[in-house]
Amino acid sequence: MRWIVRLIGVVLGLAALVVAFFLLIPGERIAAIATSQFQAATGRALTIEGGVSPSIFPRIGITTGPVTIANADWSEEGPMLRADALEIGIEMGSLFGGVIHLTNIAVQNPVITLERAADGRVNWDFQPAPGAEQASAQPQGPAGGSAGPTPFILESGTLTNGAVTYIDQASGQRSTLSALEAEARLPEYAGQADISLSGQMNGQSLLVKGRIGEFAPFLQGSVVPLDLTAEIGAARLGFEGRLGTAPLAADGRIDADLKDLSQISALLRRAKPELPAGLGQQGVAVAGALTVTDAGSVHLREGVVTLDGNRLQGEADLTTGGERPRLEATIRTAALDLSSLDGGQGGSGGGEGGAKSDGWSKQPIDTSALGLMDAAIALNADSLLLGKTKLDKTRLLLGVDRSRAVFDLREVNAYGGSLTGSFVLNARQGLSTGGELKLTGLALQPLLQDLADTDRLIGTGDLELQFLGVGANMDAIMRSLSGQGRLRFGKGELRGLDIGGMLRTLDAGYVGEGAKTIFDSISAGFTMEGGVLANDDLIFAAPLIRATGAGRVDLGARSLDYRLLPSALAREDGTGGITVPLLIDGPWDDLRYRLDVKAMVNDRAEAAARARLAEKAEELGIVPEEGESLEDAAKRRARDALQDEAARALNRLLGGD
C-alpha cells in the first residue's frame, strides 16, 4: 500500500507544481497566448479587454473582460462576435494532457453576426493563419494523418442574453435571434450531447431542444442518432431518428403541428401562404417516417397529413434533381372536404325562383400552385366535397406537368350514379379547362341543386359531354365554353310547370308552387359555342303528352330562350288533341312561361289552307308522288299540261303542211 500512498503524493505534488505555475503566469501573458493561438488556428484576430483573471477555487479557470472576434476581411458588418465576458473552467486532470475536461464555459451578452456574401462566401469559414496551416499539414499520428479536432468534455456550457444576426447580401435578407439563452452538455466527446436554446426572432418565440447521439462523428458530418424538438410560438416540430450534415441526410420519424403557418412565416419573414379552407388555412400537421437522401430527395412513409379537418394518409416522394421539383404520392382519406373550392358562384337561385343571382364569379382564379412542381398523385377517398358538388367513393389520378394538370377520373360515384372521364386545367399561358365526361344514372334534382341552384327536375339521367373553356375567372370561362354533348333522362318529374294544364285550358298560369309535369323520358343533343348551348332535337315524352323543342341556353349569362311544342293527345294512336307552342325564357332564377296562341292560330289557318289546296288539287287531278309536296306536284302537273298542249299545237302545225 505504501507505493500507492507515494504515488498519490507524487501526483498531488505534480498537481501543486502545475497549479502554482498556472497562477504565477500574469493575466496579460495568458491573454497574449490565447489570442496568438486563436489567430493561428482561425486566421482571425481575438481581442480580450480588461485582461484575464485566473482562479483556482471553486474550480480552476479563467475569467475575461470584453471579448471580440474579428469578422472576415471582406465584411463591413463589424466584429463577428462581441461578448461582455467569457468564463472557462477546466478539470485539473486536463492539465496533464489527454482529453480536455471543461467544467464550464459561460458567455455573457454575446452579439454574433453570421454573414453570407453576394458571391457565396461565409464569415464562419475559418482558415488557419499561413504558418499554422503549413504546420498542420505535417503528418501526425501513426497513420501520418491529421490529428483532427482536439477531444473535449463539457460539463456545462451557457450563453446568456445573446443575439445572433444572419445577413444574406445576395437576397438582402437580415434576421436577428435576440434574447438568446442557450445551454449545452457533453459528458463524453464521442458520446451524447444535449443542447437547448430559446429566444425571440421577428416577433416570434423560439425554443429548441436536441440530443445528439454521437457528437464527434456529428462534427465530421456523419449520420448519427438525433432527437430534436422545436417550438415556434404555438407551432411544434419534432424529429427522432438519424441525421448527417455532410451531405445533408436524415432517416427517422417526424411529428409536426404547424398550426396556420402564420408564426412560422413571420419567423422566416415570409408572407403567410393564402391556403384555401380544407387545405391548411386553419392548420397543417404532418407525421410519419421521413427520409432525406444525400441526393436531395425527400420520402414520407406511413404519413398522416392533417389539413384543417381533412386527414390524409399515404406515401410521398419528392425529388429535386430536374428542372422542377416532382412529387409522387398515394393519398387515402375517409372524407375530404374541399367545399371552399366553389369557383365563387354568386347568388342563390332557389328551386322556385328565389333571389336573383349575381352571376358567375369574376374573382381571378389563382393557378400559381400548378407551377410549383410537377406531380403524379393517386387519390382514394370514401367521399369528396368539391365546391358544392358531393362525390361518394372516388379514385382519381392527378398529373401535373409544367403548369398543366390532368385529372383522370378512374372511379367516381356521385348522386346515385357514376362519373368517368378526364379534364384538364392548363395554366401555361393564361388559363383554360376542358375535358370529356360521361355521367351515368345520376339523380338530377340534387345534382342540379348543387350545380345550378335549381331543384325543378326530378329523375335520373345520363350525360355525355365534351367541353373547352378559356378565361382568368369563372365568368370568363362560362362565357367561352365550346363543345358538344347529349343527355337522356328516364322517368321523372318537372316541377313548377304543368304542361297538360296549359294545353287543356290554354292558360299559361299553370306554373309555380304545386305545378308539375310527369314525364317518361327526355332526350336531346346539343352544341356549345361562345358560352351558349344550342339544341334543336329535344324529344319529351309524357302520359298523353308529346313534345319537341329547340332553343338556346346562355351559360355565361345564366338565361334561357326555348320553344317547346307540346301536343296533348286525345287518343292513344296520337290523333286528335291540341298543340300549343310553349315559350320559356328569362334568367334561370326567374323564368317566364308563355303560350304562343297566335302561333297556334296561324298554324291552324295554315293547316286549313293546306287542306283546301289538297282538296282542290284532287279535283284537278294533282296527286303528289312519294316525297313530293303539293306545290311541287302542282308545278309538275302544270309542266306536263304545258308540254301536252305544245305537242298538240306542233302536231296541228305539221298536219297543216
Quick tags:
alpha+beta, disordered N terminus, 657 residues, rod-shaped, 35 strands, 35-stranded mixed sheet
Notes on the protein architecture:
InterPro entries: AsmA (IPR007844), AsmA-related (IPR052894). Residues 343-356 have a biased composition (Gly residues). Residues 7-182, 306-515 form the AsmA domain. One of its GO terms (cellular component) is plasma membrane. With 657 residues, this protein is of the alpha+beta class. Among the domains are: 1-128 and 150-189, no CATH class; 433-595, no CATH class; 617-656. It contains ten helices and 35 strands. It has a 35-stranded mixed beta sheet that branches. The longest helix has 27 residues, at 630-656.
Oligomer: single chain
Q: Please state the overall shape, judged from the principal axes of the Cα atoms.
A: rod-shaped
> Please, how many helices?
10
The counted number of beta strands is 35
Unreliable sequence segments: 1-20, 133-147, 343-356
What's the alpha carbon Rg, rounded to whole Å? 44 Å
Structural class: alpha+beta
The major pleated sheet works out as: 35 strands, mixed
Mean pLDDT: 82
Distance between the termini: 176 Å
Biased composition (Gly residues): 343-356
InterPro entries: AsmA, AsmA-related
GO biological process, one term: regulation of protein targeting to membrane
Biased composition (Low complexity): 127-141
